[in-house]
């Protein structure tokens, strides 16, 4: 197959706030295509389900970034930079050394043990929302504080520093965030976490993630701080944005919402379909890898040294399920790519699942008449972050 | 008999196998890595095992049929 044409990556002008950037689906629909990123780098965009899984799991594609923070290109979040303790930009054994000890803190059974506590936090926030009365902002009343409190507890950090956690997370995931501002935030948070680490060392606990890192791993203090900050940040930005997007998706689909409200005990399976569909429909293409040798993907040869980006439009491919372009909450769960794939698949996936399941079931059971106070298309969305979502969601009930 | 294996050298402890087939897989309390509870599962558990093979992000679960 001949090399595909080079297209400019579409600006993130979404025709609909819950849909892909204008022209993007058409541009990638005929197989791998090279696009030019805003920073001038060319990358192949892979959009097939099999191709995305291959790129994210084949060891011939590297997640490693060359150089340190000074190599940051325009629009690249702090998250992607190669720094000690940043497992997002590591491969192989170096990556496993950091990732493996942490996976123990996110085990399925551990997340299941946390469910009653998550439910309690959710209920407290729904109570507060009811007392506050309509209209309320779903993002600040529920979507953001719940994951924020849960991840702080899982790490073993007091929630009194919540505002610092949230602002550091915003700087870390921002596309145009200032490295200086982030470093200042991270230093402030680092001081808080250093004290916490000393306490964990003294008590010898391994019940929370910081205790686990301090007392059971060989991580040095810089790795430990950076990992703790990443975990706090990741715990805020992702689940909160996605739960907001789930609510908006359901506001627009009263038929699907009725399926949820008729059978809220199936919320666990419905979360998988909402992840598949909402993430697929947004068509994000942020995950990048670099070929370390020539590799064939979807009929084209990616040459050694070339960049590859995957798009989650693959979640809408018919090979995954029939009518994959449609949301169907009666569908059984399928192996979607909502948490990524390969060794870098979301470390917090099991936690996110527990939170999203409890939030989904509880919100629509508690407020059966919940509806947006303004049309979804008039709401403000955050395009400046790699974790896209609504800035606020005014609701009434 | 169909045989289930996990290559622990590459396992990342994601727990996807436990979600797919909780009777066949668990995660070790020591390190969080996947363990096979039932290496030769009965036929009615095989669909869950195949799901685990498909879902495993590290592609370390195998079923020899």
TrEMBL record, chain B:
Q: Does the keyword Transport apply?
A: yes
Q: Name the source's superkingdom.
A: Bacteria
**Cofactors named for this entry:** [3Fe-4S] cluster
Q: Which InterPro entries match?
A: 3Fe4S_ferredoxin, 4Fe4S_Fe-S-bd, Fe-S_cluster_ET
Q: Which UniProt keywords apply?
A: 3Fe-4S, Electron transport, Iron, Iron-sulfur, Metal-binding, Transport
Gene3D superfamilies attached here?
3.30.70.20
Q: Cite the 4Fe-4S ferredoxin-type domain residue spans from the record.
A: 2-30
Keyword Transport tagged: yes
What the entry lists under Pfam families is as follows: Fer4_15
Physiological role = Ferredoxins are iron-sulfur proteins that transfer electrons in a wide variety of metabolic reactions.
PANTHER family membership: FERREDOXIN
Q: What is this protein called?
A: Ferredoxin
Q: Which organism is it from?
A: Lentzea flava
